[in-house]
Amino acid sequence: MSGQLTASPGNSEVTPPVVLRLKCGSGPVHRSGQHRGAAEEDAASEEEDEDDAELLNVSGKRSAPGGGDKVPEKKVKLEGDEDEDEDDEDERKKKKMMKMTRKLKKKFQ
């Protein structure tokens, strides 16, 4: 490769030759100028993570993953609900009896 290449991710400057080691997997790895935007995004997200960590340290609490703002809703039973539950149960029993009656009628016809 001809020419002197210089890359500067973040605040540091890297000049060839550069040795990169993979944490996992095997090569070959090809690096191009297209990766620069991703490196800048990573740096920005790291800064955001640090800000978030500071906020967590200040509050002393961490929210659960997946949205900790949700409050479990508790179903409140009202007096009329018991009557409705009984009515629903009676209705299910009637339907079951009707079904059994139809089966028996078909069987003996």
TrEMBL record:
Domain Nucleoplasmin core: 3-35
Basic and acidic residues: bias regions: 70-79
Signal peptide stretch: none
UniProt-listed InterPro entries: Nucleoplasmin, Nucleoplasmin_core_dom, Nucleoplasmin_core_dom_sf
Acidic residues compositional bias, start-end: 40-54, 80-90
Keywords, ordered alphabetically: Chaperone, Nucleus
Top-level lineage group: Eukaryota
Subcellular location: Nucleus, Nucleoplasm
Basic residues composition bias: residue spans: 93-109
Biased composition (Polar residues): 1-14
GO molecular function list: chromatin binding; histone binding; RNA binding
Main location: nucleus
Segments of this protein annotated with the region Disordered: 1-109
Keyword Chaperone: yes
Swiss-Prot/TrEMBL GO biological process terms: chromatin remodeling; positive regulation of transcription by RNA polymerase II; regulation of centrosome duplication; ribosomal large subunit biogenesis; ribosomal large subunit export from nucleus; ribosomal small subunit biogenesis; ribosomal small subunit export from nucleus
Keyword Chaperone: yes
GO cellular component terms listed in the entry, alphabetical order: centrosome; cytoplasm; nucleolus; nucleoplasm; ribonucleoprotein complex
Protein name (database record): Nucleophosmin
